[in-house]
Amino acid sequence: NAKLCYFHQVLLGDMGAGKSSLVLRFVKGQFLEFQESTIGAAFFSQTLAVNDATVKFEIWDTAGQERYHSLAPMYYRGAAAAIIVYDITSSDSFTRAKKWVQELQKQGNPNMVMALAGNKADLEDKRKVTAEEARVYAEENGLFFMETSAKSATNVNDVFYEIAKRLPRA
Ligand code: GDP
Ligand code: MG
Name one GO biological process term (predicted). Predict the structure, then answer.
């Protein structure tokens, strides 16, 4: 009785936080030191086996620049899940992530599964945002939190897997 479920998912966060790199790692198992900036948004898909079901993620990777902000609702409105990404070496990116969370809480799908990903966890020596600070924020706002590294692959599949487990399945 294998089931196939489709879910729209969106990645939001500051430009340079590593959204495209996380998707590339998840979908293709690759990492690029010089990942090109996303223009507008890019679409990817990947399937995951979760318990007795196959979950197919249809993923919108957004640009993150302020000038594309007005396009963002097109990508998050129909989304079942969102990963909000910041860079642990940038306090500004964490501030920006919190703004995205607020926007989704106000205007997103109320049942959306939200994950907060503190990316670039391999850059411990340049860390500006503590894991504790992010964990507390995530708990207070009903998100689940993980630190990830698209570079070393740490926790990348895990974020998607955790989302898949939390998604409602008919
Ligand atoms: P986006 O604008 O959020 O899509 O960010 P990108 O995926 O384009 O990444 C921006 C830059 O950060 C690129 O040069 C990546 O190689 C780098 N990068 C992304 N993820 C990581 C990571 O986990 N660790 C390190 N050290 N660099 C990363
Ligand atoms: Mg990008």
Answer: vacuolar transport
Q: How far apart are CA 102 and CA 106, in angstroms?
A: 6
Distance 51 CA to ligand 2 centre (A): 31
- Check if 119 has its Cβ closer than 6 Å to any atom of ligand 1: yes
Residue 20 Cβ inside 6 Å of ligand 1? The answer reads yes
Tell me the ipTM for this assembly: 0.99
d(Cα 25, Cα 19) in Å, to the nearest integer? 10
Per-residue pLDDT of the chain (170 residues; tens, 9 = 90+): 578 889 999 999 999 999 999 999 999 999 999 999 998 899 999 999 988 889 999 999 999 887 888 889 999 999 999 999 999 999 999 999 999 999 999 998 999 999 999 999 999 999 999 999 999 999 999 999 999 999 999 999 999 999 999 998 75
